[in-house]
Amino acid sequence: MKEPRELNLPDTVRYTRDHEWAAMPGDTARIGVSDYAQDQLGDIVYVEMPEVGSAFARGDTFGTLESVKAVSELYMPMGGEVVAVNEALVDAPELINRDSYDNWIIEIRPSNPAEYEKLMTSEGYLEMLKE
Amino acid sequence: MRYLPHTDEEIREMLAVVGKESLADLFCSIPGECRFEGELPLPPALNEWNLNAHFRQLTDMMAVDQDFKILIGAGSYHHHIPETIRALASRSEFLTAYTPYQPEMAQGTLQGIFEYQTLTARLLGMDVANASMYDGASALAEALLMGLRIAKKKPKVAVSRAIHPHYRQVAKTYLQATDFELLELPFLENGRTDLSALKDRTDIAAVAVQSPNFFGVLEDLPAAGEAIHAAGALFIGCFTEPLAFGLVKNPGQCGADIACGEGQSLGLARSFGGAGLGMFACREQFTRSLPGRLVGETVDLDGKRGFVLTLATREQHIRREKATSNICTNQGLCALTAAMYMASLGGGGLRELARLNYDKTEYLKGELQKAGGTPVFSSPSFNEFVMAFEDDFQPVYRRLLEKKIVAGLELGRYYPELAGRYLFCVTETLSKNDLDEVVREVRG
Q1: A70-95: per-residue pLDDT in tens?
Q2: B431 is in which domain, residue-wise?
Q3: What is the pTM of this model?
Q4: B203 in any annotated domain
Q5: Residue B5 domain flag
Q6: How many domains does chain B have?
Q7: Which of A97, B42, B81, B217 has fewest C-beta within 10 Å?
Q8: Is the pLDDT of residue B55 over 60?
Q9: Interface probe, candidates B153, B289, B309, B313, chain A, greatest A C-beta count within 10 A
Q10: Number of domains within chain A
Q11: 3-class secondary structure per residue, chain A
């Protein structure tokens, strides 16, 4: 497994303590998991995603990531309504291992866009990982 | 796989490593007030001949299959167990096999379970079957929980009142500690489940219907499936007599999402209600919600076929409180026996056997009617039916008992409205003579 300095932590997204990332270019936000998360989990074999149209609050569980050895819950970095899920992950969950940023998991319409500012920057996230 | 118990020497060595004096010291973390003090209230040990005499005494108090003709099913059926099955199932390799966590040394066990799963899925008409649950009753409870898991936000499940009373009691026990509600659907005059209460409901996660039901009545499963799906619920097709599927459509063919029930009829002795076999299967889309063990087929590094426990992330040792069940075992020997039985019978044998059960039961039903009895339910049945008699049946029952025939099960204590009515079961093991004798006594 990777050392903190080997991790890919782009500064174009923001991070949560539970290792999700969020990117909010416009009206919608995309959510995925960090390079640290996919590295720790190992080969991902299944992604449980919510139904389009379902709504969650910040911190709610919206799905799970399953690897051969563990199941990890996915928590909302921000509250909102699911407008899209990444269908490619249904047949190829391993895409998350290949690139956990290109391969987002869900896309939401944030209920409170201001929550984005509360998320960690990549520096902050790296600091947290080093602790 | 051999069982090699520890020697006293080995135990002493291990205790020394962990720094304990005796085995009792290993439990030092259990507080005093939780410990049982004094002698265990057990009778003294008996020697072999006294032990045999004791059990013979107990046996003499009961009507045992070989000695008596027992016309009772009610979830436990007297079918012929071929000698080949007895011989194979008693092999030490099968009797002593344990949980196949290490695939590198348990390929035989794993393959056996895989074959059982395959045969079960075929018998029930489903995509996936698990390695088995404890028995039909707990399998139903697990199916209801599975339905609740899949439906996510729906708080209720429903079971037909024509499902075996013990199964409903077990389901109630399982759901007692939860916030989920268990509804009971009544049965109609014709003996089939009344599903009208489902109309326009949206709060039910799953509905279970048994067929043949406790009264031996064959439910209209396709229609039941439609009504259940129309209410947005999952359809659980349950059973206590899987041999019926040699004659009638299986749950899968009738639209069931989950099929579960008791496999005792498939080569297992009744054993006074012991060691059952919970058969459990579902449609592929629900596989990840399945409780219990699952054996999968795969290839090793050299490309050779192998078997392994799979989808372990459903189970409690990984998923903990979010696991699909807390079961971490299966009825290994019983499942293997059932697999042997199904393989020995084959599709053709199963059809013949089912036909025999059905025909003999229809014969008794017809003759009892001619002798003055009235079938309580008009719907078609398989190898059980409920009969009402003009006069009190008790004297007839007692006369037949003296002739070593147990003529049915009085239903009053399970269904108060059916007091004085008797549930009869006829299997391939009863001859025409046996049935004629029952009819003779009824005639008086």
Answers
A1: 889 999 999 999 999 999 999 999 99
A2: 69-81+348-443
A3: 0.87
A4: yes
A5: no
A6: 2
A7: B42
A8: yes
A9: B313
A10: 1
A11: CCCHHHCCCCCCCEECCCCEEEECCCCCEEEEECHHHHHHHCCEEEEECCCCCCEECCCCEEEEEEECCCEEEEECCCCEEEEEECCHHHHCCCHHHHCCCCCCCEEEEECCHHHHHHCECHHHHHHHHHC
